[in-house]
# Entry
Amino acid sequence: MSLTADDVNKIAYLARLGIDARDTESYAKDLTGILDLVAQMGTVDTDNVIPMAHPLDQAQRLRPDLVSESNQREAFQAIAPQVEADLYLVPKVIE
Amino acid sequence: MHTKTIAQLTKGLRAGDYSSVELTQSYLERIQQHKSLNSFISVTGEQAIATAKQADALLAKGNAPLLAGIPIAHKDIFCTRGVKTSCGSKMLDNFIAPYNATVVEKLNAAGTVTLGKLNMDEFAMGSSNETSFYGSVQNPWATNTVPGGSSGGSAAAVAARLIPGATGTDTGGSIRQPAALCGITGLKPTYGRVSRYGMIAYASSLDQGGPMTQTAEDAALMLQTMAGFDPKDSTSVECEVPDYSAELNNSLAGLKIGLPKEFFDDALNSEMAATIETAINAYIKMGAEIIEVSMPNLKLAIPAYYVIAPAECSANLSRMDGVRFGHRCTNPADLNDLYIRSRGEGFGTEVKRRILVGTYALSEGYYDAYYIKAQKIRRLISDDFNTALKQVDVIMGPVSPTSAFGLGEKTSDPIEMYLADIYTIAINLAGLPAMSIPAGFIDKKPVGLQIIGNYFAEAKLLNVAHQYQQVTDWHQQTPNGFE
# Structure
């Protein structure tokens, strides 16, 4: 599997990740190398193997649907880049 | 007093040989004196002295908790309320955590005194501490070599005796490999044993916090406080915490040690093989029995890991978006520009590489071929360990293929760096507990012995490690200039 600079740009956009244009070629080379390494997985037959999500095969716990958290808006918004009237500000989305 | 272990310091504090304030001041001076190691990202001296005063008051009353007054430091991946928690990244350089990780809460409640936050690979992604935004850390044994990673600051600081114990985290070897390269004791517990709440997530199905100390006895003391069920961590396991110090002195006569033949193949260099063999001979002398075991799927551990870990990291790190906390770019043109530039500026090269690999592996049409396939391989590897652990009590082998490598030696080739984790990664995939203990030197640089146990068998691992430390003194040696 060989990835091109174009592929890198597409993947980077999916991840909303800025990549310097000067670096796309080197990312393409590194990613190709990593995917080659990963391709070794193909050497073993896993048709009848159940995928393992948790080492102890533990299911997600359930709890009663009760309020357990207190409002900490001020503490959390104190470290936000931009806040106004208790809201997180981002550039306008809807014109 | 800086060469003393936590166990010795708890006695010294109670005997009145020194106060916690004196101890804290003495360690803070050492941290200042050896600043060039770059093992700390933040030093919280004033807070530490205030906490030490409280500990001294409790000690004077005679009802202080066991670790009261013991100075420690946290890997900068653990959230500490009111203190910068950077995770080694520019992205979180301005992040003052609004809450404490459960591990931090527990160690605070046990009376420990936090001296600061330790350097690490960015978001725990690295094996040399060279991906940190705050620069690489020097290995105190040879300052032109790496301390290992990602808990490189923790390992270097304990090795240099700047603190008697530290927290670390291990996703693919990040406690054990730096412990080995710095000549200290490191324990990665069973997945789910130590709460991940407030421990900034890299790969959630693999991440596990643990202690990094001089001795196994000290690791038992720290783990006793760190371990336990936490309702705030959805993968935390409800399983009673045993007394980790209770079995330390048990005899090892009849202990069955498994040696995976895949660990000792031609790829292992002869010096490392000889060092590990010497360590295993010490166990034979203590009455242990050696049994060869086989793990046919071990060679697939690194390929499976480099799907699972990046996939989970790409999801976990999507929360770093420049909106609610962390780095934000200046003058974003629109929302997409805000995300793309904030993340592009905030993350370093290795983190970007892994986000890209993970995003690709999870993208439409590739999920089954990569993530599901890797999870299936994960089960095969786990089955290999389970089969072996039916025949033996513990498995032993090297931690790292070599002793500490040179700063900059492996940074140009990411894959060469990944392969340095060949002996540690499979254990995270299986979710088993494992330790690294000092087992000798190659070229005057420390080498670790890895001890792997069954699920929740931390007490057994600590017993096996402690007994070795009764007949050897590798763990007591300190690097030149740090005695």
Notes: Residues 1-483 of chain B form a domain with the Amidase signature (AS) enzymes fold (CATH 3.90.1300.10). Chain B has a mean pLDDT of 97. The two ends of chain B are 10 Å apart (CA to CA).
